[in-house]
Amino acid sequence: xxxxxxxxxxxxxxAEWDEERHRVRAELRAxxxxxxxxxxxxxxxxxxxxxxxxxxxxxxxxxxxxEVSDRLPRVDGDDVIGxxxxxxxxxxxxxxxxxTTRRCAGTADVxxxxxxxxxxxxxxxxxxxxxxxxxxxxAIGC
Length: 142
Description:
Blueprint: E1 10-18, E2 23-29, E3 38-50, E4 56-61, H1 66-69, E5 85-87, E6 90-94, E7 102-115, E8 118-126
């Protein structure tokens, strides 16, 4: 996964979906392994949206820990592509502007890296959901 430096240290976001492992990984900053990088992990409900050509168009994580939301800088205005946006413990990372054509949702192990500039890397690995605990229908795919 290679990105290109952009304005304000942002990179053109690189996101990869591994269908076999039900895992998505997004690199959101030029240096996710910077000296101030703080890796965190937890389990939550998440979903990945895909555009018409199969690209990852957004990543969402519900019920993120306060330790994560408190460290993410506030995003104002319309410049949200490739940035972590938090609203009431819900992390939304928009990666494109096109419509969603399919979605993968469920319980996931979440790993992320935070730096002084914000969310640098995000990985979700979906688990096999037990049928009786599955909170949503499989919706549009996955």
